[in-house]
């Protein structure tokens, strides 16, 4: 009898161990199934998030086909604002500016960067904002008031070619490397030239007494210049911060030290006093 009880007890223990192992396996299987289900749910969530991201990207691409911009003068006056197709070039912006002031020439700047009519709108750096600065240049008629014996031509690649009297700026060999590219405007006095580059710097050449030598104010002309005007023998440059820099013959406006504090900021336009050429006299027959 004691032997049978012992055997039954052993059998019961074996059965209990077997049931425990079975329960453990079942629990493990349930845990694996739960993990698998959770992993599957995570994958589904990731797929859904990726799909949503793709939809948002598609929406951004659809809205980025148009670029919102404002054309603003140095005075702060808004000439035009609206959305232009990103597939266009900046010529459309120049056309909008010219509608405001027909017959006037201008430069467009984004920060200190020059925007040419050939610049793709898609290449504009929108992190700098939507404001495009419009700088009006000297009218062609104003140049007819000054007598000069030399010419300066700007080419499509931004280089400058000069010819005529060497003493009047026709020889620009001394600054030729600086005129090889990036020139956006050239202005003249009676015997000197000043050129603005796309980076906002100024290059001068010609008769030193007529503004051809700007070394005295060179640090002020190294950047930020948006417009240059000339009298008979002096130049005045407007900078993007609204200040004015002058050089050349003092009697022709080259020395502005007396009003320097008033020209330190807020200037939006400089107008020169030009005297028309007298018609040549003909001897009466």
From TrEMBL:
It comes from the Eukaryota. Residues 1-53 are annotated as: Disordered. Residues 12-48 have a biased composition (Low complexity). This is Uncharacterized protein. InterPro entries: RCC1/BLIP-II.
